[in-house]
Give the backbone structure.
Amino acid sequence: MRRVSFINTEPSEREYFDEYDNYNETSLWFFMIYILRTFVPFCLALQVGPFECQESVDLYIELIGRPSFNDSIFFPITCKDYSKMESFWPVQLKEAENKNCYRDYVALRMSIIKSIGFSSGSIIGGVLSDLRIITFYSAIVWNISAWILVFLTNRHFIEIWYILVVASCSVVSVVTYVTFGEIASKRTRLLSAYTIPSYVVGDYLIRHLSKVLLVWKYLLIFIAATNSIMIFACWYTPESPRWLLNKNKKEQAYKQLSEISGLVYELKQRDDAPENNISMGYGKVFWKMLSFMVRRKLKCFLIICLSMSIASLHYTFAKTKAIIHYFDKVDPTSLATAAEGIGYLFLLPIYIFLGKRCGLFFIFVMQTCEALMAILLPDTKTYYNVFSMITGVAGLLLIWLYFLDLFPTFLRASAMSCSFCIFGVATACSTIVFSKVLDQFQFYIAFLVAGLLGTTVLMLPPAHNQDLSNLKLT
């Protein structure tokens, strides 16, 4: 190794990141961080998958017994054997022997419970994101909770504990996504979005494992054992260099640069250097963050959150419809998985040729056209569901990439937590709307208007191939 000294003046952050990106983009270390990040959505899919596919839902029903529709506290439930697809029954539903009724009930109920855990975990992750060590402790809570879930047999205890498991998953998801996005350079930041497709792999795996592990407890043991890798992943993943410099932890930032470059960087101390490492109380930091958001980023925040809401509702409603409506016809998770996979591929040409802002505008125009076609040509409603998943996935990924660019380091994880929270709320709304009386024509009119509102993304600033903002609170 050779020693490098910055002699005359302290290097600027741009000089640091030029040097950092030069080594980071081609290092095996960065590839290792990418692999570890892909385990987060993979393990999340394993954790929530048992309540979303036919075979594992049957195992769950065998464990807790058939649920009583009379005690449904979340929503009225539909049964396809008693009514048409678009007709929904009230809370007091007759007992039915048909398995699909119970599957629908469990899938919809657990979807609501999952959304509660996902939204609450996102908020916790955003509030505590300034303490990046929160990911390691959340991974431990996640794993311990998953093991406790193995031994629970009471339905109410399972549902309460499931909220805790999903909440800890959500904390890890939010903070690790932001951390990886900050570690990546502007040329490799697209990989942040492509850590998420591992969710499809986990979804596919749990669906087939539920056909082999025919006991609910054995299935959860496998999931808890696999999730143990998240403890190592969160421990090994380093702090973001942008976060370190934003917190004036320069020695740690240059130590990280030394590790990936094989060089030793030495900062010469200056007697006249100003003291920047001024600590502020957490309350004061939160107030300054809020003030900055209101004064400088409120317009961007409201527009991107509106876009997130529209894309989330398109995707979650289409996926819920695929899981519930096609239980008797085809394997619903295969249909949903195929549409999601196409959505991830669809993102690539949009990102390359249109960028984030124009790409989102194009996607919302497509969603408007899809709703218009479903209104004018009723026979295309099945295709509408498939295309909603494809454009919904691509839109969500572009929005999550846009969140990284729009906000500075001290605000980035908190803003990202709002997007994950919106996704969780959209899941709950889709489930509730799905289970209530809703005229098909009104539904497509609502999504037609939503697609038109989504075109407001053109009011966002351009953010394609730009460095992330690293403003500091003073």
Remarks:
- The beta strands are 3-6, 264-267.
- Confidence is low (pLDDT under 50) at residues 69-97, 271-278, 326-330.
- The two ends are 37 Å apart (CA to CA).
